[in-house]
Every structure is written in C-alpha cells, then in structure tokens.
Amino acid sequence: MSLTNNTSLHPSAFLLLGIPGMEAIHTWLSVPFFLVYLSALLGNVSILFIIRTDSKLHEPMYFFLCMLSVADLIISTTAMPKILSIFWFHDKKIYFEACLVQVFLIHSLCSMASGFILAMAFDRYVAICSPLRHSTSLTHTVIKNLGLAIVFRGALLFSPQPFMLRWLSYCRTNVIPHTYCEFMALIKLACAETRIYRIYSLTTAFLTGGLDFILILCSYIVILYTVFRLPSKAARLKTLGTCGSHVCVILVGYTPAFFSFLTHRFGHHVAPHIHIFVANIYLLVPPMINPMIYGIRTKRIRDRFLHVLTSRKF
Known about the structure:
Layout: E1 2-3, E2 9-10, E3 13-16, H1 26-53, H2 60-89, E4 93-95, H3 96-129, H4 134-137, H5 140-158, H6 160-167, E5 175-176, H7 183-187, H8 195-227, H9 233-241, H10 244-266, H11 272-297, H12 299-310
Parallel strand pairs: 3-5
Antiparallel strand pairs: 1-2, 3-4
Helix pairs in contact: 1-2, 1-11, 1-12, 2-3, 2-11, 3-5, 3-6, 3-8, 3-10, 10-11, 11-12
C-alpha cells in the first residue's frame, strides 16, 4: 500500500480476477475473446482503409463511421490485451495508475462512440427530412467540429474519474472481480462514503448514452413520420433501407449497454459471472460487429472491399 496524501490510501496495484468462478476454463475462454479482438482489428482497419482510399465514400455518414471505427479500435485495444494476459498467463496484476488510465479511456471512448452513433443519426435525419440541405448543412467543417465536440464531451465528463478514484481509500481489498478496471467496480472497493460518486456515475451515464439514445429515438420518430408521408411504397422502402445499417449499429451498441447498466446497478441477485459477461459483451462485441454490419449491408463498401480483395495490386 502507498500513501498518496494525508487522507487517501490506495494499493500500488490491483488484482483483476477475470471471470470469477470460471478460472478453470479461462484458457478456453481466451479463444473466443481473441477471435473477437482479431475480428475487431481487421474489420475496423478495413473500414478505415476502404473509406480512406475511395473518394466516392467521402460523405458525412462514412466520415462518422470512420470516427466510430477509431473509437472502437482504441476501446478494444485498451481492454483486450490485459484480458488475454489474465486468461493466458494468469497475469492479474495491474498497477494503480494504469488502472485509472484504463477507467478513463474506456468510459470516455464509450461516450465518444455513442456520440458518433448520434452524429450518424443526425446525418440520416438531414438526408431524409431535408435532402436539399444535406450537402450544405453537413460540410467538412461541420463534420470536423461535430467530431471534436463529441471527443471534447467525452474527455471533459470523464476526466474527473481518475482524480476521484485517487482520493478514495481502499482499505478493504485490492482484488477486482472483473476483467478490466471499471469505475463502479473500484467504487465498491472503497471504504469511504461513495454516494456522491454514484450520483456522478449516473449523471454522466445519462448525459452521454442516455441523452444520446433519447435524441436518436427522437430523430427516428421524425424520420419515420417523413418516410410514411412519401407517396409510394417503393420510395418508403428505399428510404428506410438507407437507415438499415445504422439501426443495426444502434441495437448492437445500446442493447448490451443497457443490460450492463441495469444488471450492474439493480441486478444484485444476478450471478457475478453474468455481470462480467454482459459487461464484456457491451465493451468488446460492438467493435467486432459494426464493421460487419456496414461491410455486409452497404453495397458501396462491400463492392469496394471485394474489389480490393480481387485486385492484382492487392
């Protein structure tokens, strides 16, 4: 243990247990985890390469998709190497400072990913409800400023986390029953009053994922209202088809996030390994699935990818 100031005592390192109760099969569990990570790396790098090299894809939706892919890559790389080291080498130790960095990166980047999904919803809203203003409303400058605002929001809201965790005293244990450092998991180890920390956690969760989801829902209500006013069924189906990939990304991203949030705060009787599995699905599966969704459902990305694979220059 090391004394950081007159009032705060923290361990020099924490021990991450991985998935409690399933230590005997950690090696087997590492196989799907590694495949998920590898798929996320290959998928997101492919998306970035394809959009970067094809000028026809230099449109707002695909620029926001690039931002989402970068966030997904960093999220996966922040968590997965340590998870695999626990599963493969039983390396459970993570230094206190590294744990705080991981907490900040995971929470801030998840907030940014949610913001980029909201920006994609805004793009669909403008494209469908005000198509004549789409090119003038979402200029390169607007896209860049939106991206910077989303990054700034995530960094600003979650930058207090490392300082708040440093001020706490951890006199109970330094063992974290999790695969990665997470804000609420550390709060549960503290022996001080943590109500203000829990209020902060709920507030930031609402101001990021919660508020984003409400705005996305509102945008799609307006989109559906506009679509069903179109004169023909074919036009309605074609217009809705342009939103299909984004709707799938919303479902993949927010469904496990809400399950993780609810089980973490209200599922007190849920088995610990269920908590951990849901948290890992929320963190690691969307970065793998998102590139697949756009690669399969978006004809322009799919055609470009097939062209790269079949090209002799490749």
